[in-house]
Amino acid sequence: YLKTTMPQLTVDCLDEIFEHLADDEFTLRSCILVNRLWCKVSIRILWRNAWNYNFSDFRTLIACLPSESKKILSNNRIMISTPTLEIPTFDYASFCNILPVKRTYKMLELLIGKQI
């Protein structure tokens, strides 16, 4: 029998399409499940604005820190839980274009406060 392959959209094409979905978090999260390429493109868009981040997202950002930074946190009695010691699938921090200082500070307070 003949094996047919489904044509794939290029990264540039997916970028253009997904940019129109930037405000539709539900759909972008669904795109993550399609395949690896769709996942990469949608993750980049989902993670660029820290206004949308929640507590678990900040734990993921901490997981993206270099080992030296994690050691500094540990030396200052800021314990990093086991899940954040794993290497993340993506360098999520590199996608962040907007990281509001006050919101980041509040999230870090919550993160540290949960350890006390």
Structure description:
Helix 1 (about 10-20) packs across helix 3 and helix 2 (about 25-30) runs antiparallel to helix 3 (about 35-45). The chain folds into two domains: about 1-45; about 50-115, no CATH class. The protein has seven helices and no strands. The longest helix is centred in the C-terminal third of the chain and has 13 residues, at about 100-115. The model has no long low-confidence stretch (mean pLDDT about 80). The chain has about 120 residues and is an all-alpha fold. The protein is elongated. This is F-box domain-containing protein.
Question: Which helices and strands appear, and what pairs or packs with what?
Answer:
Blueprint: H1 11-19, H2 25-31, H3 36-46, H4 55-63, H5 67-75, H6 82-85, H7 101-113
What's the quick description here?
This is F-box domain-containing protein. By secondary structure, the chain is an all-alpha fold.
Number of domains: 2
Low-confidence stretches: none
> Tell me about the biggest sheet?
none
Structural class estimated from helices and strands: mainly alpha
Write down the overall geometry. Answer: elongated
Order of helices and strands: HHHHHHH
